[in-house]
Amino acid sequence: MTDIDKPAQILCVVGARPNFMKIAPIMRALNNPDLGLSACLLHTGQHYDAAMKKSFFDQLQIPEPDIDLGVGSGSHAVQTAEIMKRFEPVLDEIIPKAVLVVGDVNSTIACALVAVKKNVPVIHVEAGLRSGDRAMPEEINRVLTDQISDLLFTTEKTAEPNLTNEGIDVGRIHFAGNVMIDTLLFNLDRAVSTEQTIEASPYPESSALPDLSKGYGLVTLHRPSNVDEPIVLERLLKVLGQVSTELPLIFPVHPRTKNKIAEAGLEPLIANANVYCLPPLGYLEMLGVMKDAKLVLTDSGGIQEETTALGVPCITLRENTERPITVEEGTNTIVGSDPDKILACVSNTLETGGKSGMVPELWDGKAAERIAKIISDWVKTLS
Ligand code: UD1
């Protein structure tokens, strides 16, 4: 095979849980033999627990990574630097046509930065989202990754002006839709029922199983701004306790949050409430619990989008969102961490059924196919 016949190799990077659902449809689409591309997968190892990684690879049928950098946890500086150090020799060896990164985690910026300095073009999927909040580590990762990307794929229309306002050439930007929703639609029929999930995942520290026959709410919390400060975390856990007197809550606990609750000795706030804790769930289990919830309380980015696609009311425990379409068109309401506002929004949602919303443009399950086609045309223009 001559070099010209060889499929152009795209090196795809994942690191943390929200990356896994984004990369699954991209890998599938890039490996479509008609496109003349090939994809290989690198996992930085930012998330390494079985519950944070392995079950996602299995359930989403993501091929085992060709390369695993095994970086693990650390401060932002340590984690980012370690990924960069370990990624550079890999890039030297593989010499791909481009490096594709998704989302906004530390692995995203670390690998993009190494690639751009080696003159390897960078493709960013989920570009242009902005919360305007530079205290959020992900916002820094978003702004910087977009600045050094050659090809930028957006999930919603507001992303394009965000990018052009930062000086990015409009010719590099493509509104392709939402790959996270590709994965959701692809897997909806396979979602595991809430009953099955609870049966299969007894959590030793959890309180007794609440009666879920009249419905339940789903909670996720992991943002540093919500869980790192014991006072803020305590306030939020107390609100969850109050909400749980009206609506039982299911709470799959992120390892970061679990550690913070333990360090601050706050377990009794949950143990004495109608809150059922679970370990971090696999994708299909989470999808099942989310789809049948009466409402979702979260500080996650991806869950704001998934609830909008599912038509489930979402109450976001942050002061802002980088995904405004979920508020303008979807089911999302931003309430922050003020207990009175959270309680008022929950009561209103339970009384009225919450925002109904509609599914945003191009959240149609075909985003990865559009992305792969554009990459295939673009690769032909590279020297
Ligand atoms: C990261 C992303 C965040 C994303 C989240 C989803 C950044 C800056 N943040 O945050 O955008 O929403 O993933 O989960 O990249 N830990 C484990 N096992 C693991 C992974 C983490 O125990 O497999 C614990 C460790 O104590 C670690 C802490 O969780 O220090 C935080 O992990 P880290 O990857 O630094 O950030 P996340 O909070 O998970």
Word description of this protein:
With 383 residues, the protein is an alpha/beta fold. The chain has two domains: 8-177 and 363-379, Rossmann fold, CATH 3.40.50.2000; 192-352, Rossmann fold, CATH 3.40.50.2000. Helices cover 45% and strands 14% of the residues. The chain has helices at residues 17-30, 54-59, 76-94, 106-117, 137-147, 159-165, 179-187, 194-200, 224-227, 230-246, 255-263, 267-271, 283-291, 302-310, 325-328, 339-352, 367-381, and strands at 8-14, 37-43, 67-68, 98-102, 122-125, 151-154, 173-175, 217-220, 249-252, 275-278, 295-298, 314-316, 332-334. The strands form two sheets. Strands 3-2-1-4-5-6-7 form a seven-stranded parallel beta sheet, sandwiched between helices. Strands 10-9-8-11-12-13 form a six-stranded parallel beta sheet, with helices on both faces. The radius of gyration is 21 Å and the shape is globular. The protein binds uridine-diphosphate-N-acetylglucosamine. The site of uridine-diphosphate-N-acetylglucosamine has 19 residues, from helix 1, helix 5 and helix 11.
Radius of gyration: 21 Å
Shape: globular
Amount of beta strand: 5-15%
CATH homologous superfamily descriptor of the largest domain: Glycogen Phosphorylase B
Bound molecules: uridine-diphosphate-N-acetylglucosamine
Low-confidence stretches: none
Count of helical regions: 17
Query: Helix and strand succession?
Result: EHEHEHEHEHEHEHHEHHEHHEHEHEHEHH
The largest sheet, given as strand count, sense and whether it forms a barrel, is: 7 strands, parallel
**For the terminal residues, how far apart are their CA atoms?**
19 Å
